[in-house]
Amino acid sequence: MNTFLVSRELLAWYDRHARGLPWRETHDPYRVWVSEVMLQQTRVDTVIPYYQKWLENFSDLHSLAAADERQAMQLWEGLGYYSRARNMLKTARILIEQRAGQFPDSIAELKKLPGIGDYIAGALASIAFGRDEVALDGNGLRVFARLAEFDQPINEAAGKAAIRELMQSMLPQGRAGDFNQAVMDLGATICVSHNPQCDQCPLTKHCHAFQNNTQDRFPLRIKKKPIPQYAVVAAVLRNGDTVLVDKRRADGLLGGLWEFPGGKVEEGEDLHTALVREIREELGVDITVHADIGTYRHAYTHFKVVVTVFEADILSGEPAALAADEIQWVRPVELDQYPMGKVDRLIAHSLL
Known about the structure:
Elements: H1 3-17, H2 29-39, H3 44-57, H4 61-65, H5 69-76, H6 83-99, H7 107-110, H8 118-128, H9 138-147, H10 157-170, H11 176-189, H12 208-211, E1 229-239, E2 242-247, E3 258-259, E4 262-264, H13 271-283, E5 286-299, E6 304-316, E7 326-330, H14 342-350
Parallel strand pairs: 1-6
Antiparallel strand pairs: 1-2, 1-4, 2-3, 2-7, 5-6
Helix pairs in contact: 1-11, 2-3, 2-8, 8-11, 9-11
């Protein structure tokens, strides 16, 4: 494979066909950073309105650093992977307090900031600062695995490192940012996971997988274990015209978001027994469980849940935040002011 020709032809294609995305209208490190954090594990079409709304509220590092966490989490709601938003707040405050509101321009210094790993550091360094650095994401892994009929699994460290080295050898001096974005665009629009549009690809004469008709075999991956599914219960506890919600602890799944109290059903428990136990552990009260009012399914990265929601009344005790940061009694019409995960937002909507 002639790496020089691959680079040149890919850039020529990008110059003609680059996607017109709002974050490509600037090299401002803040806006590049916001876009790249949002794009992790999330499709471009989903990100665009979130990106625009975020900038309407937090136009720069200073406004983000001064933001209330609840406001930031509300704007993020629906994007998932909520630790990204919390890390953005942390990073903004670090940069304001320690670096006079300036991003570092080196990979090593960028990676010291919360939530910035190899990919985002490479994207920021190359796109915002013009550094000759690789930004390798899932699209890049797929593109180069097919180009080279790469025989190592790309979901292992050794495989990623080898592809990174190949990509590094192709970086055009002074245009690494464009090259990285060209690879992303090619993987997102043409060299897609299933049924790649090879007839539109600018690199077919260099692509071993195309020449050998093996596109469907690459990239190689080590098979993951089956995703487990858990039964979960939640309670709608009422006090007059309000319902009780609690704020999840920041260091766990969906940290900082609000939820209806409950938890996972343990082995040997029925749903009612599990809910009584969970509420006692979580709030320190005893309840009586009434009819279920809905069942919701949701898939996270590493597991799935089936959540059954019950109306319930407090029999004894005063609710306390034993397993949460805080609790609140809230009118259902006001729940939209409390950032929630997808399932709890569906429950909140059902109460209206």
